[in-house]
Design a protein that fits this description.
Elements: E1 2-3, E2 29-33, H1 42-58, E3 63-69, E4 74-80, E5 83-92, H2 104-115, H3 120-128, H4 131-137, E6 141-144, H5 157-172, E7 178-179, H6 190-200, E8 205-208, H7 211-220, E9 228-230, H8 249-252, E10 260-264, H9 267-270, H10 286-301, E11 304-307, H11 321-331, H12 334-337, E12 340-342, H13 349-356, E13 361-364, H14 367-374, E14 380-384, H15 388-394, E15 402-404, H16 410-422, H17 424-443
Parallel strand pairs: 1-4, 2-3, 2-6, 3-5, 6-7, 7-8, 8-9, 10-11, 10-13, 11-12, 13-14, 14-15
Antiparallel strand pairs: 4-5
Helix pairs in contact: 2-5, 5-6, 10-16
Amino acid sequence: MVKKLLGGTFTHYSNEKLKVMRNEKEIKKIVLLGASFTTRNLGVWALTSGAITSVLHSNPNVQVKLVDYHTEPLNYEIRHRTGRCYVQLINLRFSKKIWLPNNIALLILKALIIRAVPFQTIRSKFIARNFWLKQIKQADFVGSIAGGDSFSDIYGIARLIYVSLPQILTHLVGNNLVILPQTIGPFKSSLSKFIAFSILKRARKIYSRDRDSLKVVKDLLKGDNRNMEFCYDMAFVLEPILKSNRIPEWLLKSDKRIPIIGFNISGLLYMGGYTRQNMFGLKDDYRKIIHDLIKYMVEVHNAKIMLVPHVLGSVDNSESDVAACIEIYRQTKDELKEHLYVIEDEYDQHELKALIGYSDFFIGSRMHACIAALSQCIPAVGLAYSRKFRGVFESIGMEKTVIDLRTQNGKSVIATVNKIFQHRIEIKSQLEQKIPDARTAVLDLFNS
């Protein structure tokens, strides 16, 4: 089955400066774990696209495969500047149906049994007979993204186990694992720390997109930081691509003298987290903060507000940003609605980044929505519910534009946003100096 993404477009760069160490063989097969286009979270799509872009920049002829959970295998058609290629999804199952041949628990059990066989040649033959084990074992490079921030127990121990099992399987089949740039931790429970320690101590290389995560790893590994390194979030190299007929008419006709503020509303925060009881410990009511911010920016700055979802889904999906944006619009007073626009059509990660590019200023509760703005040198405020925001923003010198909703009340949020908005020209200039270096570092990641 070949599946075209909504926009169907990825970009990869030619590689005139490819550097291959004299005594190292060129990487030809790369497997990415925890990278997917099956989720409705465009942040994960952006990370996956960024990783593929980085891979193809350094290795134009490489074969990339995604290994992640899904009910069926898929082939994604990817268009790039010099042609087309396909990225295959090798699907695992996380299911009570233990008898399924690609059930992750069954594969781990088989890998454990094979690992107990004393002879290497026999072990290799057993692995070669299993399609899923063979894909991981025969890869020249296995890298884990873990959805960007799921290698943690912030979303619960079940999520951590979910993303950790394929990484454990990689070790059991005898291949090296590289932790690609992501947020690592926090790990609150003893079980979480044990799982993280077991994976990290065996990793060939550990990249983090923030300094705090490097400290978490260093503490877990008792000070051993030999294989640790910082690298920017891979979504910084996502290309904005949008056909003219996909641009909303109101945006094309917009008065350039009136500022456009892109505003990403998180459906997850809107519903109170997975527990629906202020799971992340926000100091004030998120819904009220959003309404008050919209009212303030319209009345004080005469701004147009573009509500930008970054997690797709129907109104029946409570975590959907689309549903939250629509609800916010419905509840907004009529006199403000003429300044308020909702992006309701489905756009892929490239298209949505291009739409965000029309903003003069951005406010977001989903970090990769903010990265879509920042990477285009658009001043952005991150309405944070975890430390991942500060770490990523800090990497490009923007830590002062992060507002921690766990510590600031609604009035403080509005005052801080207003202050940042007034300095947006200066901030844009700072981003224009920082972003090229971030992009270059990500594109060269697979050269290292």
